[in-house]
Design a protein that fits this description.
Low-confidence stretches: 283-301
Structural class: alpha+beta
Helix content: 10-25%
Mean pLDDT: 81
Number of helices: 5
Length: 355
């Protein structure tokens, strides 16, 4: 091949080679730039919002989202309960974020039963509205107590769960009811050890205290079955003291209401009382994220205890170096106080809903 022919093909080859070199250099520069300088943004607040409304926002941030499901019947279906990256934290594109979404299906509102005759309450529980259909709720147990002044026989004076709580049909109802108006009241008596098994502990405790019977919670037995929580696992009379073991299901998250357990050391012999003060806060429990766009808001959280405390445990004699154990049912945020015989606060514990 002569020099003329070589020159003829050389020019196009040089042009093509230069073009390819520029192309690959540009592509390489883009890859390097994106690798070394990933785009950053601020993690939005997802809590309380539904996944449907935040899906597009997370896609624009190019985040890798992994969805986990939990079931809380007192929360809306699809509500985001947890995010692994805190709101306001800088986040890079491609980061992994774990989101917990509620699947609170089969929900219904617990009806008001307090003040009703037991027969009327049973009839009401057979037909409870859930969405567009009627379902029935199962009574897990009835604890009878003596009627106080002004109370009628066979009348419900306390219920668990409380009225208005969102529950599922799998949740059982426990009732504290005044004794029926009959001459023979042996049918409502609970005396033998086996009679106590399966009873609801917070309600049974009230019955025992009213009847001035001594009792002691020896052991809290952890269970993986939520429906067993606060039920008597075993009971045994020793002299004049009823010794109890009670199941307790420890939830992963403290919701707006549920069973709580506590154990407090008693350092000095004497009589002690346990009371709860519901806490009222001025801070809003939920905020519409859309209403906060482009705004800066500062919240001051003022808390106030209710004046009238709830008695969880009446004055009970305890020996020094013993432990006070109990299980109670909480509704809302509570401040629980251990009081001595003079009303002095020995210990204060807060129980607050996280969800």
């Amino acid at each position: 091949m002569n020099k003329t022919t070589l020159k003829k093909f050389a020019a196009p080859l040089v042009f093509i080679s230069s073009a390819l070199l520029i192309f690959f250099f540009s592509a390489f520069s883009v890859v390097v730039f994106r690798t070394k300088s990933p785009s950053k943004s601020i993690m939005p607040n997802l809590l309380g919002r539904t996944y449907v409304e935040v899906h597009n926002e997370l896609s624009r941030l190019r985040l890798k989202v992994k969805i986990e499901s939990k079931r809380f019947p007192d929360k809306l279906d699809g509500m985001i309960l947890y995010q692994s990256i805190a709101p306001g934290k800088p986040v890079e594109a491609g980061s992994k974020v774990f989101v917990t979404v509620n699947i609170g299906t089969d929900r219904l509102k617990m009806p008001e039963l307090v003040g009703l005759h037991l027969d009327n309450a049973k009839a009401k529980l057979k037909s409870v509205l859930s969405s567009d259909t009627y379902v029935s709720l199962v009574i897990g147990g009835v604890t009878f107590v003596e009627a106080e002044e002004g109370q009628q026989p066979d009348t419900i004076i306390q219920q668990i769960p409380q009225a208005g709580k969102m529950i599922t049909t799998s949740e059982k109802v426990y009732l504290l009811v005044t004794n029926p108006n009959v001459k023979d009241k042996k049918s409502t008596a609970i005396d033998k050890d086996t009679d106590f098994i399966g009873q609801n502990f917070p309600l049974l405790q009230k019955k025992l205290q009213q009847e001035k019977k001594k009792w002691q919670l020896d052991k809290v037995v952890l269970t993986k079955k939520k429906q067993e929580s606060a039920l008597i696992e075993s009971a045994k009379w020793e002299k004049d003291v009823l010794h109890l073991q009670v199941f307790y299901y420890k939830p992963k998250h403290m919701v707006e209401s549920g069973y709580e357990t506590l154990e407090l050391p008693i350092l000095k012999s004497g009589k002690y009382k346990l009371v709860a003060h519901p806490i009222i806060s001025s801070r809003p429990k939920s905020i519409d994220p859309e209403s906060l766009k482009g705004k800066f808001l500062a919240f001051t959280s003022k808390e106030q205890e209710t004046e009238e405390p709830i008695t969880l445990l009446q004055e009970t004699e305890y020996q020094a170096n013993s432990n006070l154990k109990t299980i109670f049912y909480r509704t809302g945020d509570w401040r629980v106080k251990l009081l001595d015989t003079e009303g002095k606060t020995e210990k204060t514990l807060d129980f607050r809903a996280k969800l």
